[in-house]
């Protein structure tokens, strides 16, 4: 039942109950009126997001940025995409939060309070790129089900926390450990408390990297609710689904983690390229690991009018999963010629890199600016949609914007 129908059937006493207080002047309230206190919350206010962010879904909450909103070197909360598979946990007590490390491959199960984690282990801060595996899904054909992300499901914030490897060393893990899996406090959309909306993980090699964090701060403040308060895993450069939010347990596994959304078509792509629309056997699907090379033009905004006499500076970011970006180019003539951009070093491994290039447009008129990044192994972004896959992951086609020189 939707909220409107639901509210029209409520008695004043029940409304008071839901509001948690007395409905003063309830008798004066128009029939079928839904008190503001019962209406759907405004997600932009609720999560402190900029009003130019784009809401893709409200159950669960999913929201993406537009390219021009991502111009900051470090993404602030207001421009950070939200991707949820279930309902955000309702009652989160930071003070009493604990993290349990268990699983077949721990020497013994251990529990830490949040305060203990923060004080017992050295704290580190890294800028880490988080991109949803489904970013760019909206371009796939045949279309792929799921949130129709365009380009805005990517962020690079400062994350502060402790190294997961330090914590696991303190717990003691067995030599047969191959994977970890996270368990989190969000709830399944069906309301079934036995089902987890998502429980993914990463191989031990990724766990042991210095940048793999159990984070409790984002951009110097406690992590916002929507992004995993009070504790989240951050595995930069991998599909962001590996970075579990609201985590209370990490299981150290002697096999590839088999939690929710680890199997079937979830965050997996055909191991070998297939024809668009093909059915692919489970056995021929591979788990996505490092994300592919990609870039985004964040300034000017697509559709901008630029004065002819000015040189236009193009700005943006480029990233390549576990790898560094080694070259960044832009074209204003539909890819006939490319100009090399100035490309900064990343702040640390797994952080995106900023690029800029000053362009002189020869005449007044319509132009497109195309951007192409190349990773340190010489792999470049494709101009058009790369390999089709059932769930529409890993679209790293070149970003293009349109401008008018007037
Ligand atoms: N507990 C939990 N963690 C989660 C998810 C979720 O639904 N529940 N979504 C994952 C996915 S698919 C993505 S892309 C990122 C999004 O992180 P963000 O919302 O902080 O941008 O969180 C990941 N971690
Ligand atoms: Mo995702």
Automatic annotation (TrEMBL):
This is Sulfite oxidase. Residues 86-259 form the Oxidoreductase molybdopterin-binding domain. Its cofactor is Mo-molybdopterin. The keyword Magnesium does not apply. Residues 287-405 form the Moybdenum cofactor oxidoreductase dimerisation domain. InterPro entries: Ig_E-set, MoCF_OxRdtse_dimer, Mopterin_OxRdtase_euk, OxRdtase_Mopterin-bd_dom, OxRdtase_Mopterin-bd_sf. Keywords: Metal-binding, Molybdenum, Oxidoreductase. CDD domains: SO_family_Moco_dimer (cd02110). It comes from the Bacteria.
């Amino acid at each position: 039942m939707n909220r409107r129908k639901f509210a029209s059937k409520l008695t004043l006493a029940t409304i008071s109950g839901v509001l948690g207080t007395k409905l003063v002047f309830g008798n004066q309230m128009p029939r079928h009126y839904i008190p503001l206190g019962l209406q759907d919350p405004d997600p932009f206010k609720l999560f402190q997001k900029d009003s130019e962010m784009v809401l893709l879904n409200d159950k669960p909450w999913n929201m993406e940025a537009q390219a021009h909103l991502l111009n900051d070197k470090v993404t602030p909360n207001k421009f950070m995409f939200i991707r949820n598979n279930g309902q955000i946990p309702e009652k989160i007590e930071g003070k009493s939060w604990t993290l349990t490390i268990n699983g077949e491959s721990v020497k013994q199960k251990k529990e830490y309070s949040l305060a203990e984690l923060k004080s017992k282990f050295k704290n580190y801060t890294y800028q880490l790129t988080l991109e949803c595996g489904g970013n760019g899904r909206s371009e796939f054909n045949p279309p792929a089900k799921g949130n129709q992300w365009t380009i805005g499901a990517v962020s690079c914030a400062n994350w502060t926390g402790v190294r997961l490897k330090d914590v696991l060393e303190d717990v003691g893990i067995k030599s047969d450990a191959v994977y970890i899996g996270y368990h989190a406090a969000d709830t399944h959309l069906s309301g079934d408390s036995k089902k987890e909306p998502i429980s993914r993980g990463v191989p031990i090699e990724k766990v042991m990297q210095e940048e793999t964090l159990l984070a409790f701060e984002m951009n110097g403040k406690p992590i916002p609710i929507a992004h995993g308060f009070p504790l989240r895993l951050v595995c930069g450069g991998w599909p962001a689904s590996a970075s579990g939010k609201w985590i209370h347990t990490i299981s150290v596994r002697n096999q590839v983690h088999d939690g929710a959304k680890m199997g079937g078509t979830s965050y997996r792509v055909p191991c070998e390229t297939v024809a668009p629309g093909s059915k692919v056997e489970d056995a021929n699907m591979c788990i996505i690991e490092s994300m592919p090379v990609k870039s985004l033009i964040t300034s000017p905004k697509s559709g901008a009018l630029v004065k002819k006499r000015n040189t236009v500076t193009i700005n943006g970011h480029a990233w390549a999963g576990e790898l560094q970006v080694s070259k960044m180019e832009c074209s204003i003539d539909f890819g006939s010629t490319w100009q090399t951009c100035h490309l900064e070093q990343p702040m640390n491994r797994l952080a995106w890199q900023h690029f800029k290039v000053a362009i002189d447009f020869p005449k007044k008129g319509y132009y497109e600016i195309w951007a192409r990044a190349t990773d340190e192994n010489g792999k470049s972004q494709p101009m058009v949609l790369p390999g089709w896959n059932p769930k529409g992951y890993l679209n790293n086609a070149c970003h293009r914007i349109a401008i008018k020189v007037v």
